[in-house]
Amino acid sequence: MPYWDGSLRHLDALLRGKHPEITDAKRSWITANSGSLDSNTSEFMQLETLLATPEESFNVSDALLGADVVYVRSHMKDTIVRKACIALIDEVVQVTLRNKLPTPVFIVLDEIKFIVSDTLADALATLLSKGVNMALTYQAITDLLNLPDKSLNADSIRGGIDTNTQVTLSYRANDFETAEWVSDQTGK
């Protein structure tokens, strides 16, 4: 969208066709095709922290290229906050794939089952080759099969994470299935 200034308010206005250069035909196309984008934008408009102006906004690309230290706190129960965090992680993936980062990046994603996406699971190996290392934490191996977003293919996500994780650390496996899985990873 070449008309977008980068702010959520402006994106909301554009999705409603409110721009002098958006013709009636483009407005109709936007209305017919903006489905989940329009829905997510409406939800994100409820979060005050996402309503910053372009000048005061957090820029993922600037943070990654500037080797900034960033701490983001999500919420396990608030679906809108979780969606915003997933969108943020997806943006980290996209920026990393588009740009050569000047320094290695380390990202910790705690309780991954609440914020995992297909994009993240599929990109783990590629991100590693781009200088991004991640620590993904979860309580039990079955956590990745019981995702809050039931539209995701949990088996595929678990497989992507298992396949593209180079190092696994385990601390205090409390269920048999996880303990057995960890034991199987260590050999005979």
Question: What can you tell me about this protein's structure?
Answer:
About 45% of the residues lie in helices and about 5% in strands. With about 190 residues, it is mostly helical. A two-stranded parallel ribbon has the order 1-2.
Structure in a nutshell:
With 188 residues, the protein is mainly α. It has helices at residues 8-15, 24-33, 35-44, 60-65, 79-98, 118-129, 154-163, 176-185, and strands spanning 105-109, 132-136. Strand 1, helix 6 (118-129) and strand 2 (132-136) form a beta-alpha-beta unit.
Blueprint (SSEs and pairs):
Blueprint: H1 8-15, H2 24-33, H3 35-44, H4 60-65, H5 79-98, E1 105-109, H6 118-129, E2 132-136, H7 154-163, H8 176-185
Parallel strand pairs: 1-2
- Tell me the Rg in angstroms: 19 Å
Q: What is the string of helix and strand elements?
A: HHHHHEHEHH
Mean pLDDT: 85
What percent strand?
A: 5-15%
Q: So what's the overall shape?
A: elongated
Distance from first to last alpha carbon = 55 Å
